[in-house]
Amino acid sequence: MAVNGEWSRGGRRPTLEEVAARAGVGRGTVSRVINGSPRVSDATRAAVEAAVAELGYVPNTAARALAANRTDAVALVVPEPETRFFAEPYFSDMLRGVGAELSETEMQLLLIFAGGARERRRLAQYLAAHRVDGVLLVSVHAGDPLPDLLAQLEIPAVISGPRSAAESLPSVDSDNYGGARSAVEHLLAAGRRRIAHITGRLDVYGAQRRVDGYREALLDAGAEADERLIEPGDFTEEGGRRAMAALLERDPGLDAVFAASDVTAAGARQVLREAGRRIPDDVALVGYDDSAIARHMDPPLTSVRQPIDEMGRRMIGLLLDEIADRRPALSRGPERQQVVLPTELVVRRSS
């Protein structure tokens, strides 16, 4: 049997190398196209697809996976309790982006929670058995051993935000520093002077960068940050309530609050209202994420929009590239791609 006259010689199947030679590209590039990696130019993809059609190349998925020790599955690992995953829109938006991008490939997506010690032990055993081709790590805290475990096992991995400025794994994040600056600059422009900040978990690098942006915006305006107006939070609604109560007790005259997430802002709003503070007349309020919560709050919440859906899509793109390039970790160069996507301040009535 032949396709376009190319599958001959006793019915022998064309090889991946023959497709690469016909397309004028490397074997790895053909693999990326076949595996649906988005990080291939349109011209290259067209050349490979034309070569596949001309030669009649048909990928043998099962054989390819077995020969390459592949599972055709990737895991989205969330080192948080399930309750937080379903309570915060950030995670569902990330999952939507990941799923949409992965739907264009033959890869399966596994969602794995690892919020407790028992779950982490089970996950370590699962990963050691190489039951997935790659891992997406979401909400990684400083000191989390999971990234190092993946490196030891030589499992391709991408994380949603670096653990530090010296991150060694590929990562995709939004501009946390710039987003925080824009929020505080907006409040300053509106005449607010006692601007408080409820942080996220400070063992998360993105939360640290938001604090940096808050401080620098005040400093540039000639108003050094008052440490009494910075209260630790944890990205949760309850954390927002606790932090807001502490801030009001410490400085009843504050006139604005920048919260590290929309969920946190929702908790802060509840405490402000219980204390008789009107939003935005007495206290302006700004959140972060621009989730559905921001649009449905009363009054609607000004929030820093980060492209969470796009972050998920870019993470899958990087991971598919890592999977296609399965050289041992020690033979790779030290550089990893760190993608930082822009943020946008969406102004609503809360500020």
TrEMBL record:
Domain of life, per lineage: Bacteria
Residue ranges constituting the HTH lacI-type domain according to the UniProt record: 14-68
Short name of any one Pfam family annotated for the protein: LacI
PANTHER family: HTH-TYPE TRANSCRIPTIONAL REGULATOR GALS, LACI-RELATED TRANSCRIPTIONAL REPRESSOR
Keyword set includes Transcription regulation: yes
Name of the protein: LacI family transcriptional regulator
UniProt keywords, alphabetically: DNA-binding, Transcription, Transcription regulation
UniProt xrefs under PROSITE patterns: HTH_LACI_1, HTH_LACI_2
